UniProtKB/TrEMBL annotation, chain A:
Subcellular location: Endoplasmic reticulum; Golgi apparatus, cis-Golgi network
Role: May play a role in vesicular transport from endoplasmic reticulum to Golgi.
Complexes and interactors: Homodimer. Component of the multisubunit transport protein particle (TRAPP) complex, which includes at least TRAPPC2, TRAPPC2L, TRAPPC3, TRAPPC3L, TRAPPC4, TRAPPC5, TRAPPC8, TRAPPC9, TRAPPC10, TRAPPC11 and TRAPPC12. Heterodimer with TRAPPC6A. The heterodimer TRAPPC3-TRAPPC6A interacts with TRAPPC2L. Heterodimer with TRAPPC6b. The heterodimer TRAPPC6B-TRAPPC3 interacts with TRAPPC1 likely providing a core for TRAPP complex formation.
Biological source species: Prolemur simus
Cross-referenced InterPro entries: Bet3, NO_sig/Golgi_transp_ligand-bd, TRAPP_component
Keywords recorded for this protein, A-Z: Endoplasmic reticulum, ER-Golgi transport, Golgi apparatus, Lipoprotein, Palmitate, Transport
Top-level division of the source organism's lineage: Eukaryota
Gene3D superfamilies given in the database record: Trafficking protein particle complex subunit 3
Family: Belongs to the TRAPP small subunits family. BET3 subfamily.
SUPFAM superfamilies in the cross-refs: Ligand-binding domain in the NO signalling and Golgi transport
Name of the coding gene: TRAPPC3
A single GO cellular-component term on record: Golgi apparatus
Protein name: Trafficking protein particle complex subunit
UniProtKB/TrEMBL annotation, chain B:
Protein name, per record: Trafficking protein particle complex subunit
Family matches, as InterPro entries: Longin-like_dom_sf, TRAPPC
Classification of source organism: Eukaryota, Metazoa, Chordata, Craniata, Vertebrata
Keywords: Endoplasmic reticulum, ER-Golgi transport, Golgi apparatus, Transport
Pfam families: Sybindin
Subunit structure: Part of the multisubunit transport protein particle (TRAPP) complex. The heterodimer TRAPPC6B-TRAPPC3 interacts with TRAPPC1 likely providing a core for TRAPP complex formation.
Family per record: Belongs to the TRAPP small subunits family. BET5 subfamily.
Species in which this protein is naturally found: Daubentonia madagascariensis (Aye-aye)
Compartments in which it is found: Endoplasmic reticulum; Golgi apparatus, cis-Golgi network
């Protein structure tokens, strides 16, 4: 974790807790003794944050629903509104703007003027290829999958890499249908 | 007034938790089959209610009652289903079922990374807090009425 500090602000504390917990759990599975886990935590390679983000997302959505009392969204536009105005506000204290809707209404961009997750972050020299914010894409994907939407989320601009803003492109792939478990008639 | 039992299901039909307080008659089938029966019935009722609704759907299926008991239903957009059977004196308890979801399931299970999702909840803390909560409800009486 050297060189990377997560903001300790109120609104980030839950995200941080989930992040840290999922990460440690995974490492505990991968390594047999605590000493090795500690070493991993110390020199951790963030090359693939996406799966970890996903695991956070599938849980974070429940916390979000429990606290926001938002009901099912009827379409992707409503989903975009809830993500930007309720979810981002709740967890990161910011409200990204929603822009660049595709004509079919199945793609939009979230523009973050500033990304609180990276407020106190500098990429150490040996982690310059880190897509630190990639965690957010995984979180979005995991969370939406739990409410029956298969989406793709990716960064097209990143302030950590020198861009003026941070832009996440969201694309609706398909609706995931409720299925009766196998063996039920 | 009393609470008979409670089921908690996830979006795949897995029974995450079952608790019983006052149940004088069992279903006569193994528990695993009982959970499947309950889930299958709920799945069908939800679909039926939505299809046959003469108006635009708002909340969907909420409850049913017989001459002896009332089944209350609460579902989240993530497919978590809370089912509570009470006696007939109990009105709408959506706030209670929402509390079981948000303050108990989400707080104690979802937010604990060592609790795996998608399977029966092993957490003793969850079980005991849920038990205390249900016993503290105004419509729960220790003596089944």
């Amino acid at each position: 974790w050297r060189g990377i500090v997560l903001p300790g602000t109120e609104s980030c504390s839950e995200l941080f807790t989930l992040t840290y917990g999922a990460l440690v759990t995974q490492l505990c599975k991968d390594y047999e003794n605590d000493e090795d886990v500690n070493k991993q935590l110390d020199k951790i390679l963030f090359s693939d944050f996406l799966p970890r983000g996903y695991n956070i997302g599938v849980r974070l959505i429940e916390d979000f629903l429990a606290r926001s009392n938002v009901g099912r969204c009827h379409d992707f536009r409503e989903t975009a509104d809830v993500i930007a105005k309720v979810a981002f506000k709740m967890y990161l204290g910011i409200t990204p703007s929603i822009t660049n809707w595709s004509p079919a209404g199945d793609e939009f961009s979230l523009i973050l003027e500033n990304n609180p997750l990276v407020d106190f972050v500098e990429l150490p020299d040996n982690h310059s290829s880190l897509i630190y914010s990639n965690l957010l894409c995984g979180v979005l994907r995991g969370a939406l999958e739990m409410v029956q939407m298969a989406v793709e989320a990716k960064f097209v601009q990143d302030t950590l890499k020198g861009d003026g803003v941070t832009e996440i492109r969201m694309r609706f792939i398909r609706r995931i249908e409720d299925n009766l478990p196998a063996g039920e008639e | 007034m009393t609470v008979h039992n409670l089921y908690l299901f996830d979006r795949n039909g897995v029974c995450l938790h079952y608790s019983e307080w006052h149940r004088k008659k069992q279903a006569g089938i193994p528990k695993e089959e009982e959970y499947k029966l309950m889930y299958g019935m709920l799945f069908s009722i939800r679909s039926f209610v939505s299809k046959m609704s003469p108006l635009d759907m708002k909340d969907g299926f909420l409850a049913f009652q017989t001459s002896r008991y009332k089944l209350h239903y609460y579902e989240t957009p993530t497919g978590i289903k809370v089912v509570m059977n009470t006696d007939l004196g109990v009105g709408s308890i959506r706030d209670v079922l929402h509390h079981i979801y948000s303050a108990l399931y989400v707080e104690l299970v979802v937010k604990n990374p060592l609790c795996p999702l998608g399977q029966t909840v092993q957490s003793e803390l969850f079980r005991s807090r849920l038990d205390s909560y249900v016993r503290s409800l105004p419509f729960f009486s220790a003596r089944a009425g």
